[in-house]
């Protein structure tokens, strides 16, 4: 089977490696000039790490990333503990892997290169079209390649062929990568956040090292209404730093490193999913098929799981059967996480006054009563339900 993978991001590389190993003829297209990844840090949860292990990219990712055993969030003024989720005992087998996007990308890209998978850059996909022989991919200026037996759309939020119309979320964030300061008071094995109501949130995530640098890094994020993100470039940096450290004074050694607007990348979020993420000889995975705010830290994991489930179905079933089977295998897991993200995000990122009150004075005390700590832990790990239902393990 000839497969075109459109988009060489997290899901695209995972799908390419697994499809090539399954014996399919794979071509990967991306719009970038040379393979690269933009952005800051993210968390690979245990479910995503199991896919990285299957891909042979876990060792490299573990060598680069930082193991996080705990997630802590406090109300900024009172210091009240609002979010307190543990993966497992510090130093143990259960953790979320904080990692810079570029380190994850290079771990996956190294495996793809070692397996002889060619990535064709400077190919911006405009559309795809079906004819009697298969599906063709159009790149504009009359350039078309194909026919392919299957096109896998892994173009993320920028997909030009997915019909997904995501609902814009009212808050986004600015994200930056900074050095982990020497003699820092904060724990390096923990994601930490501070909140003021739901309108202000600042967080720091240890992410290990980035390619070409041995200094340990952190991802720094600051929540902002979507309307203000547009004006971020015009806000004096000093004023922003004062606001941030007023919320969390211990963060000064991190925020002091931000001296130019270009160090913080604005990100806006959307929420939604495709009811039917496949058509004739085309299937959408990752952010091209479903989007949510990064509050639960699941997006990259979802893309990895989608890729693994899809290629498994293509190995086990005929093309006609494989696409609906893939959707069935992933639907419940994706839907539950979409719903949880939809419910939790406004408690941390909105103008609502009642929800943060509920978060701090009702849900937070409840979250400490068994079995809630275990439930919350499995929620962040991505393992609240089987992520690949009814598929045999690899
Ligand atoms: C600020 C932020 C923080 C996040 N934090 C987390 C986290 O902690 N944990 C987590 O799991 N997830 C997180 N996510 C989400 C995660 O990054 C995405 O869900 C994940 O990258 C989706 O993978 P993907 O393969 O679908 O798309 P991507 O990894 O985005 O890859 C898409 C690829 O398609 C290419 N492309 C796009 N359009 C075209 C085109 N027309 N033609 C050709 N190529 C094209 C792009 O160049 C890119 O290489 C975060 C997202 C953001 C924005």
Helices and strands in order:
Layout: E1 2-6, H1 10-21, E2 25-29, E3 41-44, H2 46-55, H3 58-64, E4 66-68, E5 70-75, E6 81-86, E7 96-100, H4 101-114, E8 119-120, E9 127-131, E10 134-138, E11 144-148, E12 150-153, E13 167-168, E14 171-179, E15 190-196, E16 200-208, E17 217-225, H5 226-229, H6 237-247, H7 252-255, E18 264-267, E19 270-273, E20 278-279, E21 282-284, E22 290-291, H8 299-316, H9 319-348, H10 354-367, H11 372-381
Parallel strand pairs: 1-2, 1-12, 2-8, 5-15, 12-21
Antiparallel strand pairs: 3-7, 4-7, 5-6, 9-10, 10-11, 13-19, 14-17, 14-18, 15-16, 16-17, 19-22, 20-21
This protein binds flavin-adenine dinucleotide.
Helical content band: 25-40%
**Category by helix and strand content:** alpha+beta
What is bound: which ligands?
Answer: flavin-adenine dinucleotide
Averaging pLDDT over every residue, what do you get?
Answer: 95
Quickly give the CATH architecture. 3-Layer(bba) Sandwich
Shape: globular
Mind telling me the C-alpha Rg? 21 Å
| CATH H level, superfamily name | FAD/NAD(P)-binding domain
